[in-house]
User: Fold these one by one.
Assistant:
Number 1:
Amino acid sequence: MAVRAAPREGTRAIALLTIVGAFSSAIYLPLAAVLVDAFGWRVALRTMAIGAGVVLVVAAVFVRERVEPGAAPRRSAAPISLRRPEVVRFLVATALAGIAIGIVLVYQVPLMVGAGLPLATAATVAGVRGALQIVGRLPMTSMLARWDVRTVTRLAFASVAVGVILLGFAGNLWVAALFALVAGFGIGAWSPLRGIYADELFDRSRLGAAMGTVSMVSGLAVAAGPAVAGVLADLTGTRAWGVVIGAASAMTSVVILRRPPPPPNQPPNA
């Protein structure tokens, strides 16, 4: 939607949209803790589900598409195809990063509480982590002007990996604060980078379908990561598996997105 609204400034439009979205975690994570303490988790889930539903209905009714007259796709790229190695690497890295991000989102409060922080403090740190996602989004335009999207994405995934490791030792408030900063940057940066990377890989006439595919892969991974970590926690009696799986997944995504070697007869800088 952002790219179609501003086809000549797609990167800036995506970054601006996700900057606004960064404030949601700062509101809803502390609110969730308050609702759970006051009314229980069922009421908390119902309240948030109703709120999300109301917002989606309002958006469906009032948001209108505005296409710039005469705008043409910026490039002509190949369709969505798993025969393209760069597409496969992108989807695999997206899935692995989604596993790590899902573990952070689901287990950040339980891991901090298990490490020794009070529930209210852990929920506040989680909210701050959500607010600090803006740290990963504000400099996105300037970072992409200096480095290519692959390099910036690898930096974001590496930040998620470091954040997961810090989460495993977040019983100390200072370590928890550092986790909030580092993980907030990585998760915040990945939100616009997902669309910007897809915009680099696919023709804009297929960008909607491409983002649907990427979102499906990411959503399944975000759900699978905490589920696997939860099963292992039940079997072993420790949540440390979440930290191990999350950190390993995020670091593997960094490796997968490394620049592929040039063909045998092509110079390295070609």
Number 2:
Amino acid sequence: MLKIKRVQQIQEYVFEHESVSLDDLGTVFGVSKTTIRRDIRKLIKEGMIQKIYGGVAINHAKLESFNERKTRNPVQKHLIAKTAADYVENGDVIFIDSGTTTLEMIRFLKNKQVTIITNNLDIIVEALPFENLNIISTGGILERDTKSFSSYNKPNSFEKYNFDKVFMASTGVSISNGVTNSSPLESEIKEITVKGTSDVFLLVDHTKFEKYAMVTYCRLEEIDYLITDDLPDESYQNYAKENNIELVVTKE
């Protein structure tokens, strides 16, 4: 196995299990403890993983809180959310993913008759005053940093929902790594939601391109609509055309 691929798989394994010993990592990846130490040194330097006695663990302090992300690029998020909400029709059953941009959609849906399934606490609270918005929570354990529900106890039953449209958030987007997220605990719901729906909308501002987080929850070609605030470079424009992705750039 190539080193770069092994390092990526190690970080995914650590995020899945939260903490692991060096012996376990050596057994799982079939390499010596010396090799494992060398691989995790790179991950520790990046800050997403921290060293603990006998092994490594997720560096939870590195995961940005929902409130910290909420204050970044507010104008762009507002415009992206408004554009996304224009695609929602009365009677639609939609999924709104946990994210600071997707949260902004509620203010533009408040006059529509819509059923919203969501994994985010703030989205539920924002929608609460509007009786025309029927809200269904995915349930599970509340992650306070991200204000999202994770560890859904029966994720496969989530497939029973026939969504008309889903609106997804992302920590980073790239052609090579796809659509990624910082919290592996949220990723299973995201993955199931995208695979089970025909109209998938990705809401990301221009700062998210050419970046990636720890977990890839879908490939970029699985997206149907990519809504952003600025036209991405030519490689993304060509990729969108080749994969029938509608690239939507917001207007003020």
Number 3:
Amino acid sequence: MADDTTAEDLPASTDSFTDPSAGSFTDGYVGDPAVRDEWDGRYSEHHRLWSGQPNGALVAETADLAPGRALDVGCGEGADAIWLARAGWDVTALEVSGVALARAAAHARDAGADVRWVHAGLAEAALPPASFDLVSAQYPALLRTPDAAAEHALLAAVAPGGVLLLVHHAGMDEHHAERQDGGFDPADYVWPSMVAALLGDDWRVEVDEERPRVVPEGGAGAHHTDDVVLRARRLR
């Protein structure tokens, strides 16, 4: 991530803000170790898990936005963060998997993109509040908690006048009673409808719809054909 963050803006402990040239993202991780280990395992099973292309909804929904400070939540192997950086955004990219972040940093170096990488869970990252003109969460695996910590963290990160863009696979939040894919339970995760329910008078919903997904070639998740897209602007 390249941004205008000053020392005063950062949380007291910045160990999770990692130099992308360091090569290791395990030390300084802030979050649930079990979640980190689970995702490290998933990434380690594949030479490349995702397509390497930016998500179509991100490209479409940022076309009319002036570049500013962006937060990419769950950046994976870095395709969205790199695309945003090359489009002129100052990008912070957040990810629980150190394996994914090492790949993302390498891809960014190859692309000549300047990104600050944060090895942390969203709720634990202690990001500067109300600091991002764009908070993008593309198909994030955010665990639900009784206090809606992840949902509130997404909203809190958006600056006045900024945009929250949350995209997920359509229909997944309706399968609360069944476990899929070897133990994955959609009821355990945050979906756009849950975030939309928290929006108050200080937000304006600009897009809240289901649409056909622009599916990149290759990568996991290509079998999902429709997206739910929530785009909301913080008014104050």
Number 4:
Amino acid sequence: MNLYFSRTLKPWCLMLRYLLHQEINEEKWNDCVAASAEHIIYGYAWYLNAVCRNWDAVVEEQDGVYVSVFPLPLGRRWGQLGVLQPYFTQQLGLFTTVSSAFKNIQDYLALIPDKYKNVYLQLNTGNTNALNIEIQTVSLSERVTYHLDLRPTYKDLLKNYRNRHKLHKAQRSGLEIKPLKNIKPLVSIFKATKGRELSEMKEKHYRMLAGLYEVLQKHNAAELLQVVNSMAQPVAAALFIVQPGKVIFLFSASSEEGRKSAAMTLLLDHVIRKYANANVIFDFEGSMVPSVAKFYANFGATPVPYVSLTKQHKPWYLKWKDAISTS
């Protein structure tokens, strides 16, 4: 039994268990995520396996069925093992069903073993109103993603665009949207542009993205598109996740020519047009960067908050310093 668990929760809370990765029943896990109120594709075991070398979890089980799950992806920061948000995974957090008895995230955090000194997680949008954190070492920060409700007709959605001049420019540029069967062109464009600015993006992350794309394909959840110019050269590309009720703008890139010709505006408009008049939310996946957020808002998307959670271990000598400080 986890000692931290036994001293933190009351005896009637024993339905919550910390499970090592090898102890998790992935079929039960996936059934729980699929039935959860917070259902989002990042939470499935097969998705987590694609973006994490290892992950544990806190699980609420009733009569052999998982009714709540809280994934804990493991990674290293500065050489120290901790619970860290994986790449290509905007939101995780708590997934609950109608049978869940424990919906306070603090109960799940209490079961994280002491050996994981640092915790950084981005919770899902459904967790925002379920937060009741009273642990002094936990800090919360609000983040936003941008959602566009695609139930209206395309004609009505178009009325809310604030970038129609860019769309018209792209439409006059001789650009064409085509499916992309291989993710390499997308990665190549990204490496030559935004990737140069992101020192934290390593080759292992591009390999992870390629592997994730293959996994998404197996689950019929990937849509990979490119924009080509009049010479059939790709100038922009994007990977979208398609799940029931939601399309997620996961990863994209535009060349210099693509930016000048507003190729990404044309591509996003294409996807919005395709899924318009359906019970679908288009999730732009952010951003906290004002210029990017404005770009998404120009399609009529609205900000939706979610929370990032940080729990940092403070060494004993810093605690002692704080205790005696008079300044």
